[in-house]
């Protein structure tokens, strides 16, 4: 709602509007709240939901589909949907998708190498499988927070339209 610049007993002058007239509620620009942003970007919301679902499925022990774990399949579907979204720039999409994968690979690898079972390959793989899931969940949370931040506060384009 515009703020009054000056007011008299008969007439109000509003900033940004015509003198003496208030803007009707149906003509005002709606304020961008979280619900309207998520409702206006449905594909992005589905992509973030699939990423969250992939992280939530990590602790549950599912039998692998062919050779792929179920959370990995859900993450791959989320990756396809995320790459099809137009609400984010390509660097933001790659950051949101890359953080879980990098956390799984490097976080699981570093934590597995620092564990006490480094003497055998079987012990190293068992330790990697224990800690890689937690690293994937943490990386997914970081990626989701980044994508959510960029959806609510997109970067301002510095390129002028011609």
Task: Give structural attributes.
162 residues; mainly alpha; 4% strand
Descriptive account of the structure:
This protein is mainly alpha-helical and about 160 residues long. Helix content is about 55%, strand content about 5%. It contains five helices and two strands, in the order ββααααα. The protein has helices at about 35-40, 40-55, 70-85, 90-115, 120-150; strands at about 5, 10-15. Strands 1-2 form a two-stranded antiparallel sheet. A hairpin with a 4-residue loop joins β1 and β2. The longest helix is centred in the last third of the chain and has 32 residues, at about 120-150. The chain is elongated. The model has no long low-confidence stretch (mean pLDDT about 80).
